[in-house]
Each structure stands twice: as structure tokens, then as C-alpha cells.
Amino acid sequence: MQHHVVLCKARKLQGRLDFQGLPISVENRKNSVRRGTDKDGHEWRTKMHLPYGYIRGTLGVDGDQVDVYVGPDRKSQKVYVVHQKDPVTGRYDEDKVFLGLSSVEEAKRAYMRQYDRSGFFESMETMGLDR
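Request: output the structure for the sequence above.
Response:
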């Protein structure tokens, strides 16, 4: 899985959860720490403020399963999809999905807290969980 267009070691799965029927594999629990090195040599370290992993059985535009962060509101029907860009090239990179949050503002804050440098956020769209 990539983070910041990253070269990082594969991580052992830290758990699984179900979000309203969506099967999620958790790669990083809340309060765990991720580390890696971007392709431009930038070393990064970030504390995970939400559980992070992927929705099993899906396929994102990057060819991997869809990356997902899961917030505390397990009844939320909103899905926030952040379209992420490569901060070096400015080109579209991949999507990050946020579940269990109550507003666009909360989702954007949650996304921005996960990055130690600017330039990743491109745009965000909101949709219903049924989509």
C-alpha cells in the first residue's frame, strides 16, 4: 500500500472491522505510527488519528484496494472521498475514503492531520454510503 507515493515495507494486518457491511482490513490502528520514505527521499512519520486500512474486495484507481480511514460515528451514512495528488509533480495520485465522520470539514481536518507536509490535498467529494 502506498502513502505519499511511498516506498515502505508491507505491514502486518492489525485487525479487521465491519462498517455497515463494508469489510475493512486495518493496517494501522488508531494511535499507531506509520513511517516511510517518499520517492523524492522525504522521510516521514505520522501518528494515525483514525484506524486506517482498505475496503476488502474493492479496486481503487491506483490498482490497490480502496484506502479507508474509519471515524467514530458508526451510523454515519456519508462517504468523503479525498482525491490526492503527488506533492512533487502535482499530478493526481490516488483516493482516500473517510467513513464514520459527520461533515466535510471534519473529513478534511482528519485528512490533513495525517500528513507532515503540504501539497497532497487536491479535492474532495461527498456521497452516500449506498454508492
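Confidence is low (pLDDT under 50) at residues 1-10.
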